[in-house]
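Standup notes
- HV: blocked on the assembly model, inputs below
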Amino acid sequence: DTAVSQTPKYLVTQMGNDKSIKCEQNLGHDTMYWYKQDSKKFLKIMFSYNNKELIINETVPNRFSPKSPDKAHLNLHINSLELGDSAVYFCASSQGRQRSGANVLTFGAGSRLTVL
Amino acid sequence: QQQVKQSPQSLIVQKGGISIINCAYENTAFDYFPWYQQFPGKGPALLIAIRPDVSEKKEGRFTISFNKSAKQFSLHIMDSQPGDSATYFCAASISSGTYKYIFGTGTRLKVLA
């Protein structure tokens, strides 16, 4: 029973193509995220949804479009793929603020996108 | 202001030694400082976290030391084991904010057997 699952795990595609990555969490969390990890391992937030509402939208090209059909799912669609989009994309979820004030992220295993 | 600076970039330690990773931040509004551990091919996972009202938190072999006045915090791994070999990320967030984490640049730790 994977808590945060992403598909596909690997994605190899040509420049200019459109692709989607799907994410599902079974933790009952209210908030979901997309993070991008580049070849140097830098982790950068891209988007966050809280109960299907977009709450974080970092400076990301508008070729990237997140969609949250319900609070357990957050998908990422990428149009007109470029070489620089090659990275590992992580989905994460959190319960939001707990009693401690902490917001603990649970990450999926990642989707490695390679653009040729 | 939003950056979290992490050092060193990579670290090699002998088995049984102490691994120390340092982070520094600028934004005094940050009030939650977690460390995440990432093994190859896996997503990061929460290791240990601290809030600025305490100067130290220990969980097993892992200790966070926090210096609020210097705006620095560090992870100490005592009796380092080969199984601790991973990439470690510090992070900072604002509890009253939009759940956004700022991650450090990561430290690749290798523990030699």
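- HV (later): unblocked. Chain A has a mean pLDDT of 91. Chain A is about 0% helix and 55% strand.
- Next: hand off to the docking folks.
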